[in-house]
């Protein structure tokens, strides 16, 4: 993965501007594009405000003072006490409706807001998970993460000294990897209704590998779409565009290739070959095999045996 290929969304600038806190410093002054980070300060309480949606992963990290944050989630206001080291996370594509309050009108608090490119999150999630493993991002109201807080502080210090964007790109890569490895309340990435309707090379290879590992199971379009990391609504069409075949036809082809291997290199009964290739009934397997290859399983086995003897 090339670190410099990921750029924070322009929408994150609008998201940051919607936060009614005073701006102390920003990484925009350093010319960084691999992430956006603002340090902001507030005094007292703030009425309800709503951030803009952005394709980036948004983090808010408390670095000074103590205040209450109320966020509207699923129609209910939920509260969390922010103090140094406490972090909240908003997944890509979501906005947040928030109220801020302090014990006194003169109580000061300071937060760092980090926007990490959504494309980077998707790429690292793809690399992070193995076949069948669950990885994704979910909203986290508040958790303590001193490591992220220290990293954010180091980033601001680097921006002040004129560090290049490569520094920011490396830090963004680490932060996303850290989040995916440490947080526990993640949802499967394919459950997100905002999934981009494309299948990348890596995701295509993964879904084909998943098919190959589960040829003996009655796989569904939902399962394959989840493994590809794309909504089931788009999966069939996008898969056909990439492979030239519908998912069911491609799966059948994989099963017939495996069946040929069993029939020509083992003495397994045809019924067992059928079972290992996802056909509970040998008759259904024989029909599918004949349709796909133009011959029956028994005939193929006999022909292969004759060629071996000859």
What's the architecture of the largest domain, going by CATH?
Sandwich
What's the total helix number? Answer: 11
Largest sheet: 6 strands, antiparallel
Q: How many domains in all? A: 2
Helix content: 40-55%
CATH-derived topology of the largest domain: Jelly Rolls
Q: What percentage of amino acids are in beta strands?
A: 15-25%
Give the helices and strands as they follow along the chain.
Answer: HEEEEEEEEEHEHHHHHHHHH
Q: Short description, anyone?
A:
This protein has eleven helices and ten strands. It is an alpha+beta fold and 310 residues long. The protein is elongated.
Write the layout of secondary structure elements.
Elements: H1 11-17, E1 22-26, E2 36-43, E3 46-50, E4 57-64, E5 67-73, E6 76-82, E7 86-90, E8 97-101, E9 108-116, H2 118-128, E10 140-144, H3 146-160, H4 165-182, H5 201-213, H6 221-228, H7 232-243, H8 247-265, H9 270-276, H10 282-293, H11 297-309
Antiparallel strand pairs: 1-2, 2-9, 3-8, 4-7, 4-9, 5-6, 5-8, 7-10
Task: Describe it.
The chain has 310 residues and is an alpha+beta fold. The protein has 2 domains: 3-191, Jelly Rolls, CATH 2.60.120.810; 201-309, Homeodomain-like (Arc Repressor Mutant, subunit A), CATH 1.10.10. The protein is built from 11 helices and 10 strands. It has a 6-stranded antiparallel sheet. A 4-stranded antiparallel sheet has the order 3-8-5-6, with no helix packed on it. Helix 2 crosses helix 4 (165-182), helix 8 (247-265) packs across helix 10 and helix 8 (247-265) packs across helix 11. The longest helix is centred in the last third of the chain and has 19 residues, at 247-265. The protein starts with 10 loop residues before the first helix and ends with a helix.
